[in-house]
């Protein structure tokens, strides 16, 4: 397979870099920053008209949306991370879409307004609202992992775990997982995988 991943590792491209490492794929990594110097350049807009990273070229098929890229790679390559049948495919897609619609936005707000921004720049109302919004989905995730031996689909680590863990990553500096032992064990296990370590090392943090 010929794979090119566009986007710096300190962006959602990390999800695709992690997936490529998990699958043992050789790939080209084109460092593409945000904004006029990268994701908004006319050449990049031909790949992703949304002007955002990541984008990927998978054997000539241009894809954007980080989690969709991972689902595509999983199905194209096969193996234990990939759906073994259409039912698993449905579940892995479900969890990936759930992560984006229920977790990603409030989790990112918790990261930025709870940790990364200076006290003066923080929107504390948005932070409180985001913490509240995460209560229900985190309870769902905790209950599911506790009841399914620590994995989302098929009793093994799959692209669903990777995609969801990559969104839970935004909670790493918060205390929101302190009372969630199943999520904590699952997330720690995901991040300790050799492929995760190799990819996250590219972020330089
Ligand atoms: N849903 C998209 C979101 C992509 C996205 O927002 N990427 C950010 C970097 S992590 C970006 O390119 N921001 C620059 C901009 O919006 O101009 C995905 O998961 O790929």
From TrEMBL:
Similarity section: Belongs to the GST superfamily.
Residue ranges occupied by any GST C-terminal domain in the UniProt entry: 85-205
Protein name: Glutathione S-transferase family protein
GST N-terminal domain: residues covered: 1-81
Domain of life: Bacteria
Cross-referenced SUPFAM superfamilies: GST C-terminal domain-like, Thioredoxin-like
Database matches in Pfam families: GST_C, GST_N
Species this chain originates from: Phreatobacter aquaticus
Key words of the record: Transferase
InterPro entries found in the cross-reference section: Glutathione-S-Trfase_C-like (IPR010987), Glutathione-S-Trfase_C_sf (IPR036282), Glutathione_S-Trfase (IPR040079), Glutathione_S-Trfase_N (IPR004045), GST_C (IPR004046), Thioredoxin-like_sf (IPR036249)
MF terms (GO), sorted A to Z: transferase activity
């Amino acid at each position: 397979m010929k794979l090119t991943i566009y986007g710096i590792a300190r962006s959602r491209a990390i999800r695709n870099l992690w997936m490529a490492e998990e699958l043992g794929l050789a790939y080209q990594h084109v460092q593409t920053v945000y904004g006029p110097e990268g994701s908004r350049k006319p050449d990049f807009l031909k790949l992703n008209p949304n002007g955002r990273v990541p984008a990927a070229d998978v054997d000539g098929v241009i894809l954007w949306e980080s989690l969709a890229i991972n689902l595509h790679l999983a199905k194209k390559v096969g193996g234990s991370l990939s759906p073994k049948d259409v039912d698993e495919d449905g579940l892995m897609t479900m969890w990936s879409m759930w992560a984006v619609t229920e977790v990603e936005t409030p989790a990112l707000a918790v990261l930025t307004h709870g940790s990364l921004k200076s006290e003066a720049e923080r929107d504390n109302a948005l932070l409180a609202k985001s913490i509240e919004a995460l209560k229900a989905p985190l309870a769902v995730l905790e209950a599911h992992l506790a009841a399914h031996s620590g994995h989302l689909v098929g009793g093994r680590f799959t692209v669903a775990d990777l995609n969801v863990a990559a969104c839970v990553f935004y909670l790493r500096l918060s205390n929101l997982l302190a009372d969630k032992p199943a999520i904590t064990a699952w997330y720690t296990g995901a991040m300790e995988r050799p492929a995760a370590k190799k990819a996250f090392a590219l972020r330089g943090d």
